[in-house]
From TrEMBL:
Pfam family for this entry, one: HupF_HypC
Gene Ontology molecular functions: carbon dioxide binding; iron ion binding
Record-stated family: Belongs to the HupF/HypC family.
PROSITE patterns: HUPF_HYPC
Single Gene Ontology BP annotation: protein maturation
Annotated NCBIfam families: hypC_hupF
Protein name: Hydrogenase maturation protein HypC
InterPro entries: Hydgase_assmbl_chp_CS, Hydrogenase_HupF/HypC
Organism lineage string: Bacteria, Bacillati, Bacillota, Clostridia, Eubacteriales
Length: 76
């Protein structure tokens, strides 16, 4: 099973983008998606963005993941 955390699009180039999560930026292939804008969130698998999320959906999902990660780390 794979779990994909939403990554925020911070730079757009032709078929590639730079995405960021918690200060870590990576370059991903965007050729599978259309109409992605700066600030959107994407789910990435094997270096390719496979799904686009709008800003609200991406931030809500990111918050849920952060809650899950903090429970696993014993912070709650």
């Amino acid at each position: 099973m794979c779990i994909a955390v939403p990554l925020k699009v911070i730079e757009l180039h032709e078929d590639e983008a730079i995405v960021c999560y918690k200060g870590v930026s990576i370059q991903v292939n965007m050729s599978l998606l259309e109409e992605v804008k700066l600030g959107d969130y994407v789910l990435v698998h094997a270096g390719c963005a496979i799904e686009k999320m709008d800003k609200i959906q991406g931030e809500k999902t990111k918050e849920l993941f952060e809650q899950i990660f903090s429970i696993e780390d014993g912070e709650l």
